[in-house]
What does this fold into?
Amino acid sequence: MTLKQAHRVGSYQIKGFYPTTSQQLRLMELGFKNGERLAILQRAPWGGPIKIMIKQSRFAICQEDAACIPVEPLPV
Amino acid sequence: MFMRADLQPHAIAIAGNPNSGKSAFFNLLTGSQQKIANFPGVTVEKKEGFLQDSDDRSIKVIDLPGTYSLDAASPDEIIAQQILLGLRDDTERPETILVIVDSTHLERSLFLISQLMEFGLKVVLCLNMYDIAEKKGIVFDLSLLSRLLHMPVVPTVAIEGKGKQEVAKILANTSQLEPSRRPFRMSAEIEQLRREIADDLVQKLLVPEREADFWAGKIISGRLQSLQGKTVEMLTAAAKKWQPKIEQLCPPNKIATQEIEQRYRWIEEICQKIIIQGGSSRSLSDKIDRIVLHRLFGPVIFIAVMTLIFQAVFSWAEPLMDLIDSSMGLISTAVVYLLPASVLRDLLVEGVIGGVGSVIIFMPQIMILFFFIGLLEASGYLARAAFLVDRLMVRSGLTGKSFIPLLSSFACAIPGIMATRTIKNERDRLTTIMVAPLMTCSARLPVYALLIGAFVPAQIVYGLRLQGVVLFGLYLLGMVGAVVAAKVFRQTLLKGERSTLILELPDYKRPQLRHTLRYLWTRTKLFLFRAGKIILAMSIVMWFLASFPKNQEQSIEHSYAGQIGHVIEPVIAPLGFDWKIGVGLLASFAAREVFVATMGTLYNIEDADETSISLQQALKQDRNEQSGQLLFNLPMVLALLVFFVFAMQCMSTVAIMRRESNSWKWPLLAIVYTYVLAYGLAWVTYQVTDWLVV
Ligand SMILES: Nc1nc2c(ncn2[C@@H]2O[C@H](COP(=O)(O)OP(=O)(O)O)[C@@H](O)[C@H]2O)c(=O)[nH]1
It folds into this structure.
């Protein structure tokens, strides 16, 4: 599934993210790379952005970007 | 020839991620000795200051815009890269870089550091916010970090001044520092090719040997395009020849991806060695966010905060505005008393003091808004606000970052337009600037009050005050106009990929009052000095039009302004306006609320303001000179109100648009499009209501 489809708040791992656009490369520079763990902390109302924690930083990432990051849920 | 900016051994640049405390550290180092200007051609702030070392030598310190990576592409990040890489003629190339790092986010910051090391710069590392890291229980092996990176590492707390002495001492002796080197390797094939390209660059293009490896790396990873300038064009041309070889090794983008992974591998290794204790990842900010970003409470809190700010803007500003108003009156009286009657005196009293006064009167509102925007930014709430409203803004093709600027424009477009600096995407930023003047600012209120007070009956309809309903309708009309205009701009002139929101949510911090006041002061100064000249010039022109040629009756009708009013009468007649309204519209180009005073002059009513009963009476009784019918009938009043909703009648906004977009193109376009909208919609309003009423 993608980060956009990940509805449950909790921990995930990025798997199979191969950037093709510069926006995706940028995400990667911020730490969104294969094998990286991230936590979904909150979702904004009405399909708004997602608050996630990655490498101790908190980012708001919008649904469009979230849709291009494949993740797998980690066992709780 | 490979051209570069001069190397300045005595210039130091401060670099770092956003929110790492860069400004705080810059202020700490340079004190009050700072110069803030714009980089030519773009609206990125250029901050320079001087650090006095113990031998009383001045070391120049340049504060670079915050950036996560040297490959990023927003305008301010491009500036940071260009300075660091010596690609700007207007700025010296610093040899030493002071990197400010948020200690609680060391890992992420090492990404930028790895790029600076790759370019062979001398780097000094400040582990800032060390107090917060200690509180969180994070423990570093600082001396090991310094040895692994081959650079001095200083723990600092910018807001308390901790670490300043040590950093200053290191910066005074930069000759002792050694240039860094690329800390990571790629695969053997890529390294081989990289060496080949580097050798070629040195021989053919005379690229300095020290830098050749860096540029070869850029060519291989295909990431030259985000940079600009002659040097880059030359490198791009040289890169063509290597393209087949590079593609043989790897498909495009793949090398860039591998490189990022390689950097992170190095970073993780370093962090494993030097972070002795990681500290807790729980943060108070997350707890606060659980309420502040909550689906239900979030929007409620947001609305409450905004309401509070607006209450403050209007209620705190009022006594100050009265004060300014009466002091302007006093100054005029004094000038009248001191100078003999002359054209010069009229110029001073009516042109300069009157004209500039009509703008200065809004300074309290503008400054209070700046103050609150500064507070929102420093506390970390601004990012949360963008998070909450992003979805709402998407409909107009913008992101959540445009919300606060547009909201501020309800008080005044000036702080709103200046607040667009936080919008990184240039198209989004320009779109926001272009539609900000459609938000109902407080300068429109006197005009609305006069017209609504005189012509909308004080009735209660379905439990609602009719006058209030009309006023609300005008606000709504402006908002809808702005959303539609934004959408149109985003799909035509400012067309481009919809920018997506990826934004850091920094930890909440207690704002430093000194920091906020400094922010307030620099914004105010920018407005007064930059926009001031244009406002002064326009005020004098307006005064001239209204007072010349001199005639016996001293009536405005025979002045140039009056003549212009008559000339444009046929054009505005379809809206139900006559020449007097024409004069009013002309005068209110300077500032909207001048309309009220101009009407007062035209109808010979002393000291008219929007509550003046005699002015309202005069308007109600005036008749059209040709048809003999009442001039201010319902269709005409509505058309006039609609005209004021859309027309950008504000020279301060024009001036600030010119400054913030760095060209006359955008303000001129804004004038044209808002006036076309104003005229068109006023016409529709007049025709439709005229047809309905009859
Ligand atoms: N506790 C603490 N707060 C800091 C420190 N340095 C900066 N700050 C605060 O962090 C926030 C961001 O700082 P600023 O200088 O604006 O960051 P910039 O975006 O990098 O320029 C401000 O609210 C500062 O007051 C520090 O060393 N310790």
